[in-house]
Q: What sequence folds into this?
């Protein structure tokens, strides 16, 4: 079941002049003919929590920029929490030296007089703008940033998930089996992606167990027929910022999640605290710098070209806050957290053009192509040459290692 949508009562916009109450949102509409409109939206009385608020916004389909008064919404629905919902809403923080009112004025061309008809001096505003990701004016779009480089909304996401399942699910499952997972276990799959591991966990823990599977963008999870089971719960969740689940878990697993999270050390600590005494944590993470990938090939020109694209991808990833060497640190980090029975293994292999791994690398390269070429890391012609290599069955290269680490909470 998917727990992040709730029914919404009548939500017709109501225009106000003067005081903006805690139960209203200030909206700024931009129309194709150049006209602008300031209005407020009155929230239904049943909108009392964060999940209610997002459900309302999604279903209301507001074609607008909106801001919150400095109320219980701005105190509980923080900038970081909204940033975790960024596929629907872009969050634009305001610099400390600049008021939100000034920021709205500079972006939208409003006058102070018009703005303060809605926001008088006695009403403070929160320190961010929230706007629909597909309806933002260009002046606002330029300020929006996402730290997550491999967006689930991108067309390449389906290929990436399919390849990851083919390449790594057997490896991951072999380590999950070592935990002794039994019927009745409470499991949490963090960053569920395509959902294949969550489905396996549900099969093993059975109808008396429970599998919580979370992702910052669960679009693939909610569409998966394999996850339509009563013991599976799907939630939209950001491991770095959102509140931890109320229950504790026998097993928590995350694959290729933490190296994307800027506050990865804190996220790891949070996962550990969500374990029951005796609960087990298993992490899979890449190390993209540990080995020379070129050893399988004798074609130096092809190898150098692939390496250039690989390094360009690394540089874009680092610009988005990824720790490309995170995998090698897992063992010592789990020990430092006080876990016992800690272990770690690495997995790498040689792959050829036309393989599942080649398809995954093509998806990754294509997704960062514009950013990498704009930064001058590689040219479009070189990217095309790399893509041709990925279709060539005579081309072979090594995959960077995936490290799997595990430990038990005492």
A:
């Amino acid at each position: 079941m998917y727990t992040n949508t709730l029914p919404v009562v009548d939500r017709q916009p109501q225009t106000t002049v003067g005081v903006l109450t805690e139960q209203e949102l200030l909206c700024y509409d931009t129309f194709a003919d150049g006209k602008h409109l300031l209005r407020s939206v009155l929230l239904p009385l049943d909108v009392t929590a964060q999940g209610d608020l997002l459900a309302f916004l999604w279903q209301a389909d507001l074609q607008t920029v909106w801001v919150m008064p400095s109320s219980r919404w701005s105190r509980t629905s923080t900038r970081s929490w909204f940033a975790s919902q960024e596929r629907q809403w872009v969050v634009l923080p305001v610099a400390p030296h600049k008021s939100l009112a000034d920021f709205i004025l500079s972006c939208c061309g409003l006058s102070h007089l018009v703005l303060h008809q809605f926001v008088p001096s006695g009403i403070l505003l929160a320190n961010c703008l929230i706007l629909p990701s597909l309806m933002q004016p260009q002046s606002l779009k330029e300020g929006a940033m996402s730290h997550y480089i491999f967006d689930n909304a991108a067309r390449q996401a389906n290929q990436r998930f399919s390849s990851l399942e083919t390449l790594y699910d057997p490896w991951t499952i072999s380590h999950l089996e070592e935990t002794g997972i039994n019927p009745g276990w409470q499991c949490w799959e963090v960053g569920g992606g395509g959902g294949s591991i969550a489905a396996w966990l549900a099969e093993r823990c059975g109808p008396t167990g429970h599998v919580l599977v979370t992702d910052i963008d669960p679009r693939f999870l909610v569409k998966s027929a394999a996850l339509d089971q009563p013991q599976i719960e799907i939630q939209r969740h950001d491991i770095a910022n959102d509140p931890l689940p109320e229950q504790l878990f026998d097993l928590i697993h995350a694959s290729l999640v933490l190296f994307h999270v800027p506050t990865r050390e804190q996220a790891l600590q949070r996962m550990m605290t969500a374990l029951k005494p005796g609960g087990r944590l298993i992490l899979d993470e890449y190390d993209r710098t540990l080995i020379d990938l070129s050893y399988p090939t004798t074609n130096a020109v092809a190898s150098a070209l692939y390496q250039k694209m690989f390094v360009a991808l690394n540089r874009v990833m680092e610009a988005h806050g990824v720790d490309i060497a995170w995998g090698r640190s897992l063992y010592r980090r789990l020990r430092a957290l006080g876990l016992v029975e800690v272990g770690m293994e690495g997995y790498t292999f040689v792959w050829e053009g036309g393989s599942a791994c080649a398809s995954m690398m093509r998806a990754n390269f294509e997704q960062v192509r514009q950013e990498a070429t704009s930064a001058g890391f590689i040219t479009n012609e070189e990217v095309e040459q790399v893509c041709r290599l990925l279709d060539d069955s005579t081309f072979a290269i090594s995959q960077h290692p995936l490290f799997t680490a595990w430990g038990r909470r005492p």
Summary: The two ends are 32 Å apart (CA to CA).
